[in-house]
Amino acid sequence: MTFESLGLSNALVKAVEKKGYTEPSPIQEKAIPLILAGKDVLASAQTGTGKTAGFTLPMLHRLAAENKWKRRPIRALVLTPTRELAAQVYENVREYSEYLDIESMVIFGGVNQKPQIRTLRSGVDVLVATPGRLLDLHSQGALSLGKVEFLVLDEADRMLDMGFLRDIKKVLELVPKERQTLLFSATFSREIKSFASSILRNPVSVEATPENTTAEKVDQKVYRVDKGKKTELVIKLINDGHWKQVLVFTRTKHGANKLTEKMGKAGISAAAIHGNKSQNARTKALDGFKKNKVRVLVATDIAARGLDIPLLPHVINFELPNIPEDYVHRIGRTGRAGASGEAISLVCGEEREYLKSIEKLLGERMVTSSIDGYEPSKEDMESQPIKGKAQKKGSGGGNRGGKSSRGHRGTGGINSGGGGSNRNKNKSRRPRRD
Ligand code: AMP
Asked: Residue of the nearest CA to atom 11 in ligand 1?
């Protein structure tokens, strides 16, 4: 299968070739012809599947085919939950539209509005935005959504998790009823299904990976360890394995900062990325990580969602997430684009309920083990589970049973156990949630 045979224009095929893609990914093969045919699409796809090109390419094809306006109105609106994802999607739009007469831009919070307003005034065809800033600018009269033909909701499940439902409903009132709507989501709870059915018209469903299952190529390991020994263990794992690029997840922003500091003291270059960090700091941390200047990126779930970090070999769950679906998202950062990856979870006694919730979602028991010298103590294993328990996302969960983890690679010392150019250059440091 080629991009040409999917019906994309020469200008788009050229842009795709420039990116070095030789053939469409499965989600692209399925979604592109449907979107070109004008269908609403409900897609189950995680980051790493090529979903962004899956919706961007056919959308650009259709927009370019009918480009009759003198002053460009916003004809396509892509909503994303986080600033990072917005920036990434925008980057994709910009690259794929290189040989088209299409202007695009991205807007998100945490940076000065003025340059964004100026660019909007000059006219853009494709706007990528986070909901908060979009509504802010709309209420100031800086943009109109009355000519939107395409509405894309990327990582819709995450947008609902982050409390954007009301904002999205407001946006829906501002865009025309006659439009093509595309909804992408990594998980499908009852909540997301009912949300989707309320905004899509006769949608066609496409799936890149089976819902709520963990990626096939991810080798999952769970090490039991005392809470107080986790930092030491994670440093040992990184040093012993000579890992050059590791993504570590913590549950809290404070935890992310603390761990980053301790890594630094142990001589491991690390940077934290979470909601309290300024946009600049987040971008810098991610850049440093991508360019191998920073060895460890410590992230909270919200900050990490949607980050495009190709071929990441190691992901460590320093703490398990309290929302089980986040486990699936986290380990989706590894084993991508044909490469295998390893996801290690460090689990202490008080997290046992979280582990149970994850096993329930995956439909399988996770094999646990421990590392020599870091075996869990009786006291830790018997400690009270964290209050508040695991949070349920929506009411459904939609578990279909996951693929089994691949057990352990018998490494020594492991004891088996039981069971439009972004013309916005402003550098305001005001942190805010989009
Ligand atoms: P996404 O799932 O959209 O975040 O894309 C994940 C990564 O896959 C990005 O780095 C894309 O540039 C890359 N990608 C997208 N489509 C293809 C393709 N057809 N062949 C190879 N890589 C791709």
From this structure: 50
